[in-house]
Every structure is written in C-alpha cells, then in structure tokens.
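Table S7 (text form). Paired inputs.
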Amino acid sequence: MPPSPLTITRSFVAMINARNAEGLRDLMAENHLFTDSLGQTVEGQEAMYAAWKAYFRMAPDYEIVCEKMLCAGNTVVILGRARGTCAPGGSLSPANHWDVPAAWKAVIRKNRVAQWQVYADNEPVRRILAAAKF
C-alpha cells in the first residue's frame, strides 16, 4: 500500500526541519511547484532543490512547527508556525530570529509533493534581511 498524502507531507516537513535539501528533492515531483507567501513561484524539482539549499544557508535553524494537519484527498493543510534565524556570514544572532504564524498547503501526486505553498506574514523576515544586507 502506498504512503498516504499525510505521511508524505509529514516526511516533507521532517526533511525541512532537518534542513535536508537532498531528502526534500527525493520527495518532490519532477514538476514540483513552490509558491511563497508573496505569490512568487519556483518551478521544477532541481530549481527548488537549489532554492532549499540557499534558504538553509540563509536560515540554518529554520523549522516548521505543526500544530494541526488536515487532509482532504491528495491535499494536506498544515497550521502552525515558521521560525528561524537569518545568519549573515553564518552567524546566528538572537536579534535575527523570527517566529510567525503560518500555514502550508501540500498537494501530493504519485506519492510525491507536487505543490508546496506557504502562507505567512514574512514582514519580520524581510526587515531582518534588509538590515542584515544579505
């Protein structure tokens, strides 16, 4: 029996929280579509693999805190928090930490994450990035 959409999504979150870009690539569909909270997209498994690697360099302690997961068919919604620390030059400073309410939508097709969409107020992150001059 193939894994359920909920199981695949939990694995995807576990790879994010482990900052494991290779594990994420293995779970993404080749035509994966990522959409951020501003509506910007990244298309394709390899492009998103590169984007995750860059994101984990920028925020090496990034994590998703799942408070609730809801599943309907092949769509999973996660309610929770996103948090991490922007690390210019690799340095983790408490002044560069953020913790915001967030939600994510995963669409699973053929046992892979075909779509991953983030819903969050990332203004605190944008302020940190602007001040840190990444």
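Next pair, protein 2 of 2.
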Amino acid sequence: MSQKTTRRLFLGATGSAITLSVATAMGRSTEQDEQGPREAAFERNYDPPKFKPSWAKEQVNRQLLQDFVIFAHSDLAMVKQLLEREPGLLNGAVDWGGGDFETALGGASHMGKHDIVEYLLERGARIDIFCAAMTGQIDAVRSFLTLQPDLIDAKGPHGFSLHFHAQVGGERSVAVLEYLQSIKQVELKPIPFLRPKAEAEKQSDQ
C-alpha cells in the first residue's frame, strides 16, 4: 500500500472518530445528525406577551451558524472567512438539543483554542466565566464567583465544568485551576485531545 493511500485512510478514519466523539459529547447520534435538528412541540398555555417583535430583518441562516460554531472548535481560517461573510454570527448560539446552547466562543474555549478565542474577543464576542477560566483571567473568575458563589458548579456547553475549562487553558490558566480547586476540590481527569498536542510539541523540540 502506498504512503499516499495509507495517509488518506488514516485521515478518513481520524475524521470519522472526531465526528463520533463530538456527537457523543453533545449527547447525539450520527443518525440524528444526518436527520438535522428537530424543534420541540410547543403550544401556549398562557396569555401571549403584549409586545410584538418586529421581524423586518432576516435571521442568520441556521446552517451557516452551525458550521461557524463547529469550525470555531479548531479552524481559525474558516472562522475568519465565515465571520467576514456574516458578522451576525459572532454571538449566535446553536441549541444542540435539550437546551445545550453553544456559541463559537464557547466551542473555542472548551477546546483550549487560544488563537480562536483571542480573535473572537477582538471582534466583540461576549466573554463569560468559562472563557475567563480558560484564558487565565483570574480576577474576572474571582469577580464572577464573588457575585454568585454557586457558579463554581456551573456547566458550559456539553456540560463542561469551570475546572475543565481551566485545565484545557494550559499554562495560562494554572493559577485559575488552583484557585478553583481551593474553592472546590474535584478529580481532574486526563483530557484525551490534549495528549496529541503535547506529544506533537515534544517531538518538534527534538
């Protein structure tokens, strides 16, 4: 088997594994992904609000927003390309099901993608406590937890905790992780997708 063919097979298998892992983390099956999102049935059992919203402008396309949030997990070039095409994507949130809302900033934050996070913040993305934890903004994290101590148990997209976000932040967020552990000690489990990155950096130094 040629080197080119072997590489193609490897990339294909890797891509499938990543897709399955993300779907599992979001509590969805690949079959559900192919079917697309389904809106829950709803019927008012209360009086409608008196305020009537104006729908003069088109909403951001759902497929475009979904792609943008997915790319924000790993692909800065595509994030830039899509945001230039549609600035309204910046703070858009996708409901992956059951109220699991995720923005591009949220996706980049729990993946530890500092470059994507910094770009989104420069463009005006709304920082939250999870992003602050990942980027090592300890004063901001302290302020959030002083205002509302129960946020120590808050969950971000896909249920990822504050401790998890501080873990994926790497060296920049060591102080934040120590601070969070001083408030509530939790078991810090290894994060699989960080291992290849560390190994790659080690090999590049050799």
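Strands lie at 93-95, 101-103.
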